[in-house]
TrEMBL record:
Organism of origin: Colwellia chukchiensis
Residues reported in the UniProt entry to bind [4Fe-4S] cluster: C154, C221
GO CC annotation terms, alphabetical: cytosol
Record protein name field: Phosphogluconate dehydratase
EC number: 4.2.1.12
A GO BP entry: D-gluconate metabolic process
Cofactor requirements of the protein: [4Fe-4S] cluster
Gene3D superfamilies in the record: IlvD/EDD C-terminal domain-like
Catalytic activity: 6-phospho-D-gluconate = 2-dehydro-3-deoxy-6-phospho-D-gluconate + H2O
Described purpose of this protein according to its UniProt entry: Catalyzes the dehydration of 6-phospho-D-gluconate to 2-dehydro-3-deoxy-6-phospho-D-gluconate.
Cofactor comment text: Binds 1 [4Fe-4S] cluster.
Lineage, opening ranks: Bacteria, Pseudomonadati, Pseudomonadota, Gammaproteobacteria, Alteromonadales
């Protein structure tokens, strides 16, 4: 094992000693020596299986057969989740063949950031993660279940399901993906058309045609944003079957993997004699593996908050500095858009997860001796699934890259670090993704132009007011101010200005899309403006330094002058009303800072 990664892992173990011990005691107390429904009264149990068929009722009356919960984010508007429509019956049939029963325990909401980008509904996006966690808790609260299958893919859905799964850590749990849509219009071309539209060179019809050619069928979007980063992280933690993450939906192999996932969870229940609950399976080493894989692939910055949140649900304390220090030890091994030209299907064709696992394991960059849903050891994940004469098998995966521009080697990486930098200075602490930055754009010293809404920046750009070197400050976007909406609308105009040769960057207490990258963006700034952050005192023309090499983020204004300044206050101006936002006030006010997961679910007793 890499010594630096071992040291960071031990640091996390030491930091988490008390909270992890308390967590393990909690899930041990929730374990049952028989089926969980055995603790229910006759009336409870009768309600629990009232709608079941005769055969399932007979099985559930006894104590010899497992009952598996299905929790799904299915809806038919989201392309990534639409394939889940047929999964419950496939799963029920597969589990019935093992002698068990599967029940659809509950659905969780699933919103699409792609639909809500720049819209009022985006203010609910991050908070929806906590709603998903609570919805999953309601689904599992009946205590009927001996294991769980989680069906989810996209941005906040998987982290919400993970938070809940860790909370119900006494249950064996398997995550079931649905796969990416076929490749459409290349992501680079889509980005080009977006920039043309931002400059007025093409109209709405041309833009919609390009977007529709990119997002064109059932399945996950093919760029390496938060959704596909989620899938990679879940597989690296051993919660997917090997190679399951990026198999296309509605294919025989995809259906075979879904059936296999259903059967696999029954092999982990108390009744199987091979009990492996998710809370015991996922430990500090598993979380470090997740971060390493995210960094090695240049994944979404949203996961910096999500990993902190779901790790905390398992009693494991992670912080931004852990990401920073692991990034120093981990080379960048993939170029997937926005960090390169390829999409996730091309990554799969170049060797995919099996090859990535091989590189990381052979170089000692991940902990190999961890538990997974397939047993102990990550080496199993260097295999890939295939169908041979209708039978699902796993064969050894690629040992070398099928496209060296998409997957590199540890010996000759794309970058020597993982491309994530924690920025610190008098403004506070933030995160900068460097893996897709252009040479020469790592250090920017320029005057501030202050905005309190991304639409204000777009209007200034359209008015020709931003043709200059500057650092955009977009504030009052943090968790407690607005729920931390993504600021993806800023990507095209700032990209246009960068292409014109201007030195531009972004500083915000909000967040950017997992698809953003080439413009330097110090995001997730803590403390946020409404929590007393210095960002609330920045004025137009103030000099700022964003140094992606040293990690310094500073407001270059005399301390005495700053002390004399009044901080600007948040003008709510309707941001908490409309599109359901008025229902989320209590949650919004209780969100923690970004560096502690931007979460509303935990109290000091965890």
């Amino acid at each position: 094992m890499n010594k630096q990664i071992l040291q960071i892992t031990q640091r996390i173990i030491n930091r988490s000693k008390d909270s992890r011990s308390a967590y393990l005691e909690k899930i041990a107390a929730e374990k049952s020596t028989t089926v969980h429904r055995a603790s229910l009264s006759c009336g409870n149990l009768a309600h629990g299986f009232a709608a079941c068929g005769k055969e399932d009722k007979a099985r559930l009356r006894g104590v010899n057969h497992s009952d598996i919960a299905i929790v799904s984010s299915y809806n038919d508007m989201l392309s990534a989740h639409q394939p889940y429509h047929s999964y419950p019956q496939i799963i029920k049939n597969a589990i019935k063949e093992t002698g068990g029963v599967a029940q659809f325990a509950g659905g969780v909401p699933a919103m699409c950031d792609g639909v809500t980008q720049g819209q009022p509904g985006m203010d609910l996006s991050l908070m929806s993660r906590d709603v998903i966690a609570m919805s999953t808790a309601v689904a599992l609260s009946h205590n009927m279940f001996d294991g769980a299958l989680m069906l989810g893919i996209c941005d906040k859905i998987v982290p919400g399901l993970l938070i809940a799964s860790m909370t119900f850590g006494h249950l064996p749990t398997v995550f079931v993906p649905a796969g990416p849509m076929p490749s459409g219009l290349p992501n680079k071309e889509k980005a080009r058309v977006r920039q043309q539209f931002a400059q007025g060179e093409v109209g709405t019809e041309e833009l919609l045609a390009a977007e529709s050619a990119s997002y064109h069928s059932a399945g996950t979007c093919t760029f390496f944003g938060t959704a596909n980063s989620n899938q990679l992280v879940v597989e690296v933690m051993g919660l997917h079957l090997p190679g399951a993450s990026f198999v296309a939906p509605n294919t025989p192999l995809r259906e075979a993997l879904t059936k296999a996932a259903a059967r696999q969870v029954t092999r982990l229940t108390q009744q199987s004699g091979n009990y492996m609950p998710i809370g015991k399976m996922i430990d500090e080493r598993s979380i470090v593996n997740a971060i390493v894989a995210l960094l090695a692939t240049g994944g979404s910055t949203n996961l910096t908050m999500h990993i902190i949140a779901f790790a905390k649900a398992a009693g494991i304390i992670i912080n931004f500095q852990d990401f920073n220090d692991l990034s120093d030890a981990v080379p960048l091994l993939t170029r997937i858009y926005p960090n390169g030209h390829a999409d996730i299907n091309q990554f799969q064709q170049a060797g995919g997860m099996a090859l990535l696992f091989k590189e990381l394991i052979d170089a000692g960059l991940v902990h190999e001796d961890v538990e997974t849903i397939c047993g102990r050891g990550l080496r199993r994940y260097t295999q890939q699934p295939v169908l041979e004469n209708g039978e699902l098998k796993w064969l050894d995966g690629a040992t070398s890259s099928g496209d060296s521009e998409v997957i590199a080697t540890v010996a000759k990486p794309f970058k020597n670090d993982g491309g994530l930098k924690v920025m610190k200075g008098n403004l506070g602490t933030s995160v900068l993704k460097t893996s897709s930055l252009r040479e020469g754009s790592f250090v920017i010293k320029a005057p501030a132009v202050v905005f309190e809404d991304q639409h204000q920046l777009v209007s200034a750009f359209q008015a020709g007011e931003l043709d200059k070197d500057f650092i955009a400050v977009v504030r009052f976007q943090g968790p407690k101010a607005r729920g931390m909406p993504e600021l993806h609308k800023l990507t095209p105009p700032l990209g246009v200005l960068q292409d014109k040769g201007f030195k531009v960057a972004l500083v915000t207490d909000g967040r950017m899309s997992g698809a953003s990258g080439k413009v330097p963006a110090a995001i997730h700034l803590c403390p946020e403006a409404v929590d007393g952050g210095l960002i609330a005192k920045i004025q137009n023309g103030d000099m700022l330094l964003l140094d992606g090499e040293s990690g310094e983020l500073s407001l270059l204004v005399d301390d005495a002058e700053l002390a004399a300044r009044q901080a600007d206050t948040f003008n709510v101006n309707g941001h908490h009303q409309g599109m359901g936002r008025e229902l989320f006030g209590v949650m919004r006010r209780n969100l923690s800072s970004a560096d502690t997961g931007a979460c509303s679910l935990f109290d000091d007793g965890l």
